[in-house]
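User: Hi! I'm working on a homework problem where we have to compare a predicted structure to a textbook description. Could you give me the structure for the chain below?
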Amino acid sequence: MKENEVIEMYIGSQALMKRYDACLLEQGYTIEELVDKASDCLYKHMSGHSFAIVCGPGNNGADGLSLAIKLFQQKKEVHVFIFDNGEHLSQANLYYLQQCYDLSIPVSLFQQDNLDELIQCMDSYETIVDAIFGFGLNSCPRGIYQSVIEGMNQLYDHEVIAVDIPTGLQCNTGKPYQSVVYATKTITLSAIKNGFLNPDSRFFTGEVIVEMLDARDVGEAAGLYQMGNAKMIIPLLKERVFDGYKGTYGYTCLITGCQEYKGAALLSAKSCVYSGSGITTVMSDESVINALTQFCPEATAVLRPPVLQKDDFVKYDALLIGCGLGQSLDSYRYVIDLLEKTHQPLVIDGDALTILSAHVDLLKNQKRDIILTPHLGEFQRLCPFQEDGDMLEIAQNFAKTYHVTLVLKGPYTMVTNGYESYRVMAGHKAMATGGMGDVLAGIITSFLGQGYQAIQAALLGVFIHGYTGEQLAKKAYTVLPSRLIEHLPEVMDEMIKSNPKVTLEKSV
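Assistant: Happy to help. Predicted structure tokens:
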């Protein structure tokens, strides 16, 4: 994937791409019209003179047949290879196959007794087009499909172009089934497939080119995720105002830490301060408070009472609970009390997520912004799911059901409130160290306290956290959370200065 080709793009999983297709049909397009538009996108990337187009029985195969017709009409040498010419073909496949016959385009039917002959025939063409199966494949290609794929992979020195996704590559994970087409180029339609974010998928996709259909934009209606990159997120960060003071940037309260887990509370507090919070107060036990004065003297502290009351929080603009809180009976009571007795925007992280998993229905009655920041294991407790489930759809449905903004941490972290959904293109494997989640929770809470909307606070927090880690990873095998925090102010300053809008306003 070329960098300039992934800006402002959608990302789709198998379920979401099916929903996207359904939305287009609801707009009044016919299958045949959509196939025609798809082949228009494919045609512009066909630079050779002779083409072997391998077509499956579904609409991916129909894309290939429609492409064959357009190439043939431009006097290209075209040969269609198809697995079925009868009752198992889709409506669109039948429609375009008949046109191929009417135009006398060579069409060969794969059968067990002619496979070797047809594979050899393919070898005589410059370009091989894989239009066998699209993103809907749910299992390893078997039988004659497997044999053809293995035969295609033995043909060297050919350009192999996959339509939408290489046959045999899993749409959601980017992992291959046992039999998979090795493409030199993939022309993917309407959205980057979620599996393409897995860097190992490049062995099978080759270069990925994203093409948008000449049709109504139904990506948001279908729930496709958006690419959360620098171009999209950096403009969300507000410049500090001329006459601002500490109150301008919010009062945050962090209900974090305990005797056993002081570090998590300290890291979340310092990251909250360093990312711009006006006043950060840590509500914790004495051991955490004593350590806080040395680790982050800019933060204030208050001893956590045995029972939390509404009056304890009236002056705060945003709350965080969970980092290093532990799972004692007191901790359980703190989580329940905070959900029942406060109204401020709230971030729930770490131990509080585990506690919440037993009381998740409490979220449905909340009338405020709530951001949850689980990793995959914590999310599994909140929302039990099958390991092979469609995570983009699962995350989206959970956020919508419980009226929360979900930050599902991992490579290209998912951020969704059920209506707006993003994969944030920031982060580095060097950041896989204990305490990173606490830092992220503190940053997000800081932005929430500064008055950002929940989705904005989450996007900014995840991007700044990941981008800072990327910069440090250029010169470090491991990025330490404490070191990442120290660089937050200068990274945020860099972001402000790189915002064209800010630069323009200063020059006027």
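For your comparison, note the following. The two ends are 38 Å apart (CA to CA). Confidence is low (pLDDT under 50) at residues 1-7, 504-508. Good luck with the assignment!
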